[in-house]
Structure prediction request, 377 residues.
Amino acid sequence: MTQHATGESFDLAVVGAGILGLATALAAARRGFRVVVIDKDAQANGASVRNFGFVTVTGQERGAMWSRAVKSRAIWKEVAAAAGIEVIHTGLWMMVRHPESLGVLEEFLTTEMAEGCRLLSPAQARATCPELRAPHLSAVLESTVELRVESRLAIPRLAAWLEQAHRVRFLRNTTVQGIELPTVQTSRGNLRAERVAVCPGDDFSGLYARRLAHFPVTRCKLQMLRLANPGFKIPAALMSDLGLGRYQGYAALPAATALKKRLANEQAGHLKHGIHLIVVQSADGSLVVGDSHHYATTPDPFSHDDVDALILDEFRKALGIDPPPTIERWTGTYASAPDPVLIDNPEPGVALGIVTCGAGASTGFAIGEELVSQLFD
Ligand SMILES: Cc1cc2nc3c(=O)[nH]c(=O)nc-3n(C[C@H](O)[C@H](O)[C@H](O)COP(=O)(O)OP(=O)(O)OC[C@H]3O[C@@H](n4cnc5c(N)ncnc54)[C@H](O)[C@@H]3O)c2cc1C
Prediction:
């Protein structure tokens, strides 16, 4: 990575090399602007490399977020091909066992968000993937639109491609300490930029901390697991009833009220820890499985065994198989607020963008375009 950009001049400086910073850099570079991306870490280390790499459209909040996901998914597809990022599998199987969940899926299928989706019977599902025994399965919502990338490989690959194909400059190990346009002050000296996009993820105490204090932002901590290869290929990313109660595209539908009641009665322990199930597969066959949701200004960094046990309990219930051995554990955090995205203009020429929900991998490319449009149009 190029490191000696201080003293140079750019059309746009992007603070943060997570998915949102990279997406913003892409949108600006495609318009022909000279772009520098500055990150305090040596390599991406935040939410963008800790997530499932699950680029999901189905289930995103109806309206703006769903449209952002549709657009971002199209950009992911195009960028993955150009940058040599492997799409490891596609689609989603929402595997449900409760009758109330079936009601939610049937209502979902009547909405505009159901494009590319259909219901599979348990027999159809078992014919496709007999290894998923799921004895209590009542239906599967199959969607064909989702993509899965291996974020810890995809994000560095995306950055390298931006550098090579779009001449985006990268300054790593460099903290942006202040912005007085056209000067961007960093821990390694100053550079000049006409405009700045600040994409700091869940770091609310750095740039524009006083401004951010006016927004109801907090942080959400998630526990994640990698399980050994189960010995078969999953047909798509897998989710379960608990996901219908959390993902707003389903959870906001009237039919979800009855399901949420049942889940509150029967799975209060899971709900207490914000657990829902996502299972995706890596190129070596191992499974990435999660997750939980705990909210705090500074969440603790520890993985708690009882929480992992509840995630694995849902895995067992939904898939009908014993979880393979756990081979890796990690936690991650993302920004959270009542609105799913925070876009602000703290001063002329500066845009601040934060994805304040767990959907930045799915919506970041569209939000990056919005930030660039706000700065240059
Ligand atoms: C465990 C987990 C699972 C998830 N699963 C999914 C999923 O499957 N699908 C999905 O769509 N979303 C998922 N998400 C959410 C998604 O990962 C985030 O919304 C997204 O990564 C946020 O990207 P970002 O670029 O805004 O933030 P980050 O990835 O946190 O990047 C912000 C960057 O800014 C840098 N930075 C901050 N301040 C400064 C400064 N002053 N100077 C220099 N650098 C600075 C940081 O070093 C960091 O690299 C998940 C999140 C987690 C934690």
